[in-house]
Design goal:
Layout: H1 3-14, E1 19-22, E2 30-32, E3 66-69, H2 78-88, E4 94-97, H3 102-115, E5 121-123
Helix pairs in contact: 2-3
Amino acid sequence: MSEQESRALKSRALDRVGRFQLAGEAQGPALVLSQALSFWGGLDIETGDIIDRSHPGLGQNVAAKILVMASGRGSSSSSSVLAEAIRRGTAPAGIILQRPDPILAVGAIVAEFLYDVSMPLVVCDIS
């Protein structure tokens, strides 16, 4: 990628406007997933590794990253998995979604309430 293309990409990224599902601040490298991830059965909460064998992100680590994906996937148990990963420090630093996800929002809210650890969750156009 040329320097000019890189600047254009950064400019487009900075022009995004999103809605917080859970407010906060986060920093970290982006981990962009091409498919939705179910935290229940898809994430190792001890390491932050993606363990879903059918997911293209298998083996990647979400810890301290800004996780970018269209939405979460699957089980309502993903809330408890995300909350526990936040408590352990193996969760993403923040999550950016294309569509609101109440299951992931509940996990982040519970972690903030129970453990006083926050993880922002933002919804915006990621295309």
